[in-house]
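Pasting two entries for a bug report.
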Amino acid sequence: MPRARWSVLAALLLAVVAGLPSVTPVAAGPTAGGMTSDNVEYLKHIPFEAGGPSGARLLGKHLYVAGFKNFSIYDIADPENPELLSITPTGFQFPNEDVDTNGKILLIQEETPRGMLHIFDVEDKQNPAKLAEFEAGDHTFSCVLDCQWAYGGYGSIIDLRDPENPSRAGNWGYSPSSPSFDVTEVSPGIVLTASRPLRLLDARKDPAAPKTVAYGHAPDDRLMHAARWPDGGKDDFVLVTGETPFSVRCDEDSSAFMTFDARRWKKSKTFSMIDEYRMTNGTYVDGRPPANVIGCSALWFDDHPDFSDGGLVAAAFLEHGVRVLSVDPRGKISEVGWFEPHGGSVVASYWLSADVIYAIDAVRGIDILRYTGDA
């Protein structure tokens, strides 16, 4: 069929879909872990030993979870029945939000005035060992180029080619006038920063002095929290969250989950915001608490394994739990499922398989869910 006819058919299909009434998931009622929509099944609770979890990283068949006093490693080959392999004490460290690893070394950032970066050898999952610590001052750190380098949320570049002797190598471009929170390597040497504005960095030729190749702008220059670019930076959409901590009420000023257009970035050198999704308060039975203590910031999220130019996202919203969001082929966002924990505060969520979601809860531990809706 000629390309022009395919384009016409695609346009007609989008028009039909846009005209369909939106379907809001209804509550299935309370479970042992919390309220859920009718397409989310609560499976079980995994307590987190010696302090609430504050961040995690999923890599292969292992889940690395950091908390206020330790980090734990789980074998998640069977997602519904994770096996605890080890618990490593770290002393009180807050918040360790975005731990990162290549499966050999693990990076945990300590949120203190000194901002210590702790480096662990985790090749033996049952016996991790500390390699070094480095006074960096950043909020988070992420692995770059197989953890030979660490990029910090506040711009630091740390040389980890000898992980027992880390050294400061440079700054990727952070400044007080363009604050940042986190960075993510979307493909080897290509790094996306959750900053104002978003930056796409190319560190392949010179990791100590990466080149900024594109920017992403929100209309109101809001504070960004986390950013992901599915399919190794080949997807049509960049996915981003903001942050508004300790918001008692959720309103038009609350942080959002956002989609940015990445379809023409090579020519325009920019990513532009398409849509946003914000939390609102409710009545509990509708999956939304009437008020907040910690807030309803959009925090760490994960795109579905089958996400491709649209699809499902599991996003954490603190006291508002996990929201299963759908991004359509235009980049428009809708809610299609949810889990609201009893007395919890979800900081991160991950797809462990096509239907199993882990909710990493700073109060409760780990809640395991199954999404039964249409993927």
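Entry 2 (this is the one that rendered wrong in the viewer):
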Amino acid sequence: MSLNFIYKILLTAILITIPHNVNSALNHDSETIKTIRIHGIQRSDTSMVKAVSGLQTEMPFDSSVIETARKNLRRTGLFSKIDIVYLSKDTGVDIYLFLREAPALLLSDIGGELYSHKYGEQDLWWRMRFGFTHNNFRGLMERLSVNVSFWEWRSLGAYWHKPVINTPYFLGLGSYWAQYPYDIYDHDYQDISARITAGRQLSANSRIGLSIVPTFRRRHSRDTLDNLKEIPETLKTYDTTDFYEAFALIGLVFDNRSNRFDPENGYYSYSEIKTNLLYPGINRNLIQFSNDFRFYFPGISTDHKLALRLNTVLRYGDAGTYHRLLYGGDGQVRGYYKKKLGLTFVANNSLILSSEYRFPIWHAPEMYFPLINLMYSGINVLSWRLDGAVFFDYVRMWPNLTEIFSKNGKTETGRGFGAGLRVMFPAIQTSGCIDIAFGERRSEDNNSKRFTWPPITHLYLNMHF
């Protein structure tokens, strides 16, 4: 056997093995994810967590997928702690997610309003509210909200929001029932409505939705005789009118707040176009554009915050008394009773400006509170602090778009200012608020305004900024 023959055999063997060696080296350099293990979850569905994180077995692995998964999980708001580690082996990469779930069941509303009018007369009456939200219903990142009110205003509402996992789309279903006396006229109302929503996430911080809202209202017109109060309740007469209506609305949300609870910077906006042209029934046609802008800035010192709010409602034409705008109370213009402003004429357009400056007063030591674990799993200790606030609210209302700056047109304004306290519970993302507010009133001769005594107290759960 010649040396030339032996050389050819060795060269052939080397050439045959080169592709195999190259592929082996490439496979070693481009590792893949072999296993994904999740620890610490109790409510969340494992497949939902994997889908939201963006991690999949057999996908190529590099350090960027870990940071992307962490951002995706943090964006859901479902987890208070997220740790991700990985172990590289010859067979691939094992990824371990160590998660701590944030409270899923949150009180969304506790409070009440004191109304100043009833059946067209000065008559103070209460409406109490209670509500809660489950942010991880069925462990699938669904949100279920339930609200109820009682006393003279009785209502029950529920809304279910479902994201379609691994897609930017979401669905929503809701219903509402209420029975209450009217402020301005001698009427009682019963409302029933439903809501069907389909939408899409546009980016990490924005989404758009289209809703169809069929409504039914039954109006009981009470006996309008001058001696109404002298007639026994069993002898009073009532006329009943039914209103059927269907709204279509498009809403656009941008949420760039630093966090949802007590944000330090950023902004939030919600814009909506709403119309009943889908089916107005016996009501007037309504085309309405509204928006709510909220801006957050750091204060002059550490832990100080400034919140600003701009809210507008603009309508094409006159929507009539059925859809008139009425304002007052917490969440709108403090220093007034609920629906106190807007009684002098039918307002179709409005502008609300609000500002609030918050500052810490006292950080309380942690409290061991084991019963809280029944509602907020994994939390036995509560930390809380007391914040102070000063605020100013302003509203301007007018009937037609062309009369906003008119000196002869009908307008109504309201101003309120005051101070308040906020008890902040960051662990459960809840706050209890009390405001003492002064509202501006017209004098009896209607030629001057003044901030009258005594002030009005507003009690509510969670800040409106």
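Dev reply: Rendering is fixed now. As a check, the viewer should reflect this: The radius of gyration is 30 Å.
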